[in-house]
Specification:
Chain A is an alpha/beta fold and 406 residues long. Chain A folds into 3 domains: 192 residues, 3-Layer(bba) Sandwich (FAD/NAD(P)-binding domain), CATH 3.50.50.100; 141 residues, FAD/NAD(P)-binding domain; 54 residues, no CATH class. Chain A is 33% helix and 27% strand. The first copy, chain A, contains 11 helices and 27 strands. Chain A has a 5-stranded parallel β-sheet, with helices on one face. A 5-stranded parallel β-sheet of chain A has the order 11-18-12-13-14. Chain A starts with a strand and ends in a 7-residue tail after the last helix. At the A-B interface, helix 6 of A face helix 6 of B. Chains A, B: Keywords: FAD, Flavoprotein, Oxidoreductase. Chains A, B: This is NADH dehydrogenase-like protein YumB. Chains A, B: Its cofactor is FAD.
């Protein structure tokens, strides 16, 4: 009469949604569900760039796990995973060990720095509440120092963002809104501050519709963002960044480099013996590990291919949430003795990238393009829909973006 | 028919009050008045500790010079004084030179570090808007970093204030209010943060009534301030402070040392050939230089003795303001051909030290002691009286501390 143990690692989009869905579909006597997370809170990774720029407080972005997970049905263990032992069906934590019958890995991403010298040591990444508010404070601290030095250093006012993908573009959009406020706060002329986006690909937002890309770049350039497109970062030190463009080397004096140009799956999974490709684990159609059939992988750690394009699906919140829903349903079936579990079928609803708080671009449904206010509104609809799904109307009211006309 | 030139150096308490009083007592055809200041604003030095702790925004503390000085009567030159040439009756600025018939020196104080190794390089001082907001950001940045490191460093959370005189006590009082908010903001347990006040004298607030000192220390200790009294600072490095007490050496891991234990007059005056004592210039009874009768010295640069105690008057805002009033009257007399100028007679009204936003101690009028709310209220009355005097009711309403019940 032992209940099966379901262990969920990580309370990001994939992990927490799996827990919330399972607590709805399973009764307390069906299984023991345990959710493990490093912090007591879940956070919306797709809002962190706003916390990092200082345009949204991080308490809006994070959600107390106990506010959405019913702890009479799901055990919550606040701890850090140190390794997974799939042969022994065990997970080792810093302060304990858990056995599982079914394991869900939702341990998220980490930055991929591609061996660029000095990048890992000297660049910031936007990947947690801690790292996002550190970026906010780092920028502000440098502004505060600027007028205290006999020879003011321009490196304090040059902010370089590596990568013009989704996160990079959204982050410079927020910075463009925030910098004028910081200039006022610290008595610094706006024209002394540079926001520079460096992208190695031949275009910003690779993969996006060219018309939307042009709109985005125009909008951002009008607000003072400089683009270096087709520029490879060669080196980052404490106070400069070197890049190469058109076979010319150029240096930017800066002590604020934010790297938003590459992610990989959490390396802990690979180190635990799972075969991986840039940290992402190739999975079966039903999201189970190809090596261990009792292990499901959701979110950025999972590698699945879009059969139409023959390319991997990007690691997005939208896909992580859908994977979680699929996995929760499948585990519930297995627990109830039904082995006919379902393959994962992503249902892509579109993508919207914000360009600061009052502009955005996007593609929704069947390639309908959105610009400006309608895209901004759509972005909020998507964010609010997630909150409703995760924690119902009360969470939506508490953390939602309800200011559609601002 | 050349009008005499009056040049006022510095827009601190002494300089700006001299300018404001002169613009009232002289007509536009009596003299050319020029006020020189590094910034476009005056600030209330006695509020800077609140800006440094982050409990009051610095825009409340600073006042646009053009809001209180009538620029049709007083020329305002925003520039930095590089030297005074009293033999040539000239002042050299970074971007120009001014001739004077009457000079008023109100160039304020700088920190005296008594040759303590590493203090000048590694400690902060609370002496300008720039330095105060840097302290605020420095503390916050270290709190932000704390949770981002694999091995969190206690030096980031230990704040050491050198000196339990007026500024030191008022600053730790504000910190005691601010730290719980910062702990919440950065997910740091309050008990990990230390606020340590190190004072070399055998008591805090030397010169104050012992009953008031005891009240102050009890109030601050109850809010988590630690006192090291009779402790000499021996050395400050980037990440520690060494002090000696009872012939024992002790180290505190810290990268935030705020030095509030000694001031001296602006060294530029001494360097310009004025004889000085710790940077303060001994003056005649009417505040004129003993060497140059066309030079008046007001505020912290002036050294005058209290005849009763045979000790110098302390460099306070109260005395600076009274010196300015006296000097403006005397210069107006001289300009109008009346050589019977008046000696300066300080009228000490009392002293109040705040202990955070809701507690204070003080002595007013004839040694009446004040504690708690009544002292807090009296402090606000004093501050508001100054604003009224400087800029009338409109300035009082804009920058006053009118929240008596908070």
């Amino acid at each position: 009469m032992n209940n099966p143990n379901i262990v969920i690692l990580g309370a990001g989009y994939g992990g927490i949604m799996t827990a919330v869905k399972l607590q709805k579909s399973l009764g307390p006597n069906d299984a023991n569900i345990t959710l493990v997370n490093k912090h007591s809170y879940h956070y919306q990774t797709t809002w962190l760039h706003e916390n990092a720029a200082g345009t949204l407080h991080h308490d809006r972005t994070r959600i107390n796990i106990k506010d959405v997970v019913n702890t009479s049905q799901v055990n919550f263990v606040q701890d850090t995973v140190t390794s997974i032992l799939p042969e022994e069906k065990k997970v080792v934590l810093e302060n304990g060990e858990l056995s599982y019958d079914y394991l869900v890995i939702g341990l998220g991403f980490e930055a991929a720095t591609f061996g660029i010298p000095g990048l890992k040591e000297n660049a910031f990444t936007i990947n947690s509440i801690n790292s996002a508010r550190l970026i906010r404070q780092h920028i502000e601290y440098n502004f505060a120092k600027y007028n205290n030095e006999a020879n003011p250093k321009e490196e304090r006012l040059n902010i370089v963002v590596g990568g013009a993908g989704f996160t990079g573009i959204e982050f410079v959009g927020e910075l463009a809104n925030r910098i004028p406020e910081l200039c006022k706060e610290y008595d610094i002329p706006r024209e002394k501050v540079r926001i520079i986006n460096v992208e190695a690909a031949p275009t910003a937002l690779p993969g996006f519709d060219p018309e939307l890309v042009e709109y985005a770049m125009n909008s951002l350039e009008a607000r003072g963002v400089e683009f270096k497109i087709g520029a490879m970062i060669k080196e980052v030190t404490e106070n400069k960044l070197v890049f190469e463009k058109d076979e010319q080397r150029e240096e930017i004096a800066t002590n604020t480099v934010v790297w938003a140009a590459g992610v990989r799956g959490n390396s802990l999974v690979e180190e635990s013996g799972f075969e991986a490709n840039r940290g992402r684990i190739p999975v079966e159609a039903d999201l189970r590990s190809k090596q261990y059939s009792d292990v499901f992988i959701v979110g950025d750690c999972a590698l699945i291919f879009n059969e139409e394009t023959e390319r991997p699906y990007p690691p997005t919140a939208q896909i992580a949430i859908q994977m979680a829903e699929n996995t929760a349903e499948n585990i519930a079936k297995l627990i109830k003795g039904d082995d006919h579990i379902e393959p994962f079928k992503p249902d892509l609803k579109g993508t919207v990238a914000s360009l600061g708080h009052n502009d955005a671009i996007g593609v929704v449904f069947d390639d309908k393009k959105l610009f400006g206010w309608s895209a901004t509104a759509m972005k909020k609809v998507i964010d609010n829909r997630y909150l409703l799904k995760l924690g119902g109307p009360s969470l939506l009211l508490k953390k939602g973006k309800l200011n559609f006309f601002k």
